[in-house]
């Protein structure tokens, strides 16, 4: 007996479908799908959340200095004339960043191998390539979802049955993060 459901698809199609549904579950918090798919998505999602919970505090904070171009009020770079050439002026800023330890970095890469990249497009820019925002789901897992579930031992998702679908009578369910 295999350790997974085949879902009537080839292995590459099945992996892509499950990755897409897990990505949407973490991004949106809940999705509507069929019961067998939801049970497979639950397995993958709970493993990712468990991994994020284990490694959520495994980092060190480091202060770094960064050169950033000076900008005017209308968000243009400030330039000065040096030897007949226009040169951008820079200022140094100190930033505190999180530096992952080795095991957290490994966990981040494992999660990245499952989740697809997500881009957010505002309604005013629909259909355009400009002004799209990349959503970092891994940081969402580590910073938002993992602290919420740190005192739970599994059971991070809930499956609620909706009833049969009209077209093919497949049992539809909502899978959501608890």
First CA to last CA: what distance?
30 Å
Order of strands side by side in the largest beta sheet? Answer: 1-9-8
Number of domains: 2
Strand count, sense and closure of the main sheet? Answer: 3 strands, antiparallel
- CATH architecture field of the largest domain: Alpha-Beta Complex
**How many extended strands?**
9
Beta-strand percent range: 25-35%
Query: What level of helicity do the residues show?
Result: 25-40%
Label the overall shape.
Answer: elongated
- Briefly note the structural class of the backbone: alpha+beta
CATH topology group of the largest domain:
50s Ribosomal Protein L17, Chain: A
**Low-pLDDT residue spans:** none
CATH class category of the largest domain:
Alpha Beta
What is the H/E string?
HEHEEEEHEEHEE
Give the integer mean of the pLDDT values.
Answer: 92
Query: Looking at this structure, what is the CATH superfamily of the largest domain?
Result: Ribosomal protein L17
Q: How large is the count of helical segments?
A: 4
What is the C-alpha radius of gyration, as a whole number of Å? 22 Å
């Amino acid at each position: 007996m295999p350790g997974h459901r085949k879902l009537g698809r080839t292995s590459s199609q099945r992996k892509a479908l499950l990755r897409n549904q897990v990505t949407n579950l973490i991004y949106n918090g809940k999705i509507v799908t069929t019961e067998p798919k939801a049970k497979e998505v639950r397995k993958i999602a709970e493993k990712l959340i468990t991994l994020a919970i284990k490694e959520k505090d495994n980092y060190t904070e480091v202060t770094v200095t960064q050169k950033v171009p000076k900008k005017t009020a209308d968000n243009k770079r400030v330039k000065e004339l040096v030897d007949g050439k226009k040169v951008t002026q820079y200022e140094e800023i100190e930033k505190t960043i999180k530096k992952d330890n080795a095991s957290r970095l490994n966990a981040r890469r494992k999660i990245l191998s499952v989740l697809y990249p997500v881009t957010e497009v505002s309604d005013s820019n629909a259909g355009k390539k400009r002004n799209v925002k990349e959503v970092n789901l891994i940081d969402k897992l580590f910073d938002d979802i993992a602290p919420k579930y740190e005192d739970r031992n599994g059971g991070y998702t809930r499956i609620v049955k909706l009833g049969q679908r009209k077209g093919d009578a497949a049992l539809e369910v909502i899978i959501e993060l608890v």
